[in-house]
Amino acid sequence: MAKPEFSARIQVSVVWIAMLPTDNEAAARKAIQIIPVGDVRHYFDSDGGVGLALSQDLFPSWHREIFAALPEDHVLKEAFARYSSDPGAIAPLWDALFVFRPGVTWTDRPPAPDEFVKQLAFYGGQGLKKGQPSGSFVRDSFRDLPIESDWFDELRRISAELDASGGGTGDSE
């Protein structure tokens, strides 16, 4: 698969969050090769605090919204059932991409993104044919049904949108 290319006007920060037993700093350093573009800031979050902050502050009911949007026979329905049954449960937000207007900074709380993509399921990268989706994603709303796509396609789509809008989403001052 071709790797995404970003405009020089786009600043990229990547937070590698430890969510699986195999997620550690060494794995994050190896994964950095996935995004081999110039000015990318990489961070490693060993305790998942960033994912929890995003969930608690911006999208506290994201997992319940997805669960409610999925038809009963959807393959992902069971995966989201455990969080939806406990109204107080907070699911960390991970495998997501957020787009912010130029100049937005994260202070005490994470800022609301202008656009986002969240991967809900991963089908596996090895053995997929070129152009075949690698997962299920939602874009900009957790209340919509997921679409099949691929991270590289999503990155290319967002990068093209940002280039077309002059490097930011919407009007920037």
Task: Provide an overview of this structure.
This protein has about 170 residues and is α+β, with helices and mostly antiparallel strands. The C terminus is likely disordered. The protein has a domain of about 120 residues. Helix 1 links the parallel strand 1 and strand 2. Helix content is about 25%, strand content about 20%. The chain starts with 11 loop residues before the first strand and ends in a 9-residue tail after the last helix.
Give the helix/strand layout.
Layout (H helix, E strand, L loop, with lengths): L11 E6 L7 H7 L8 E6 L3 H9 L4 H8 L7 H8 L11 E4 L15 E8 L12 E5 L7 E3 L1 H14 L9
Parallel strand pairs: 1-2
Antiparallel strand pairs: 3-4, 4-5, 5-6
**H-E string:** EHEHHHEEEEH
Tally of DSSP helical segments: 5
* Overall average pLDDT: 81
Strand % is 15-25%
Describe the structure concisely.
This protein is α+β, with helices and mostly antiparallel strands and 173 residues long. Helix content is 27%, strand content 18%. It has helices spanning 25-31, 49-57, 62-69, 77-84, 151-164; strands at 12-17, 40-45, 96-99, 115-122, 135-139, 147-149.
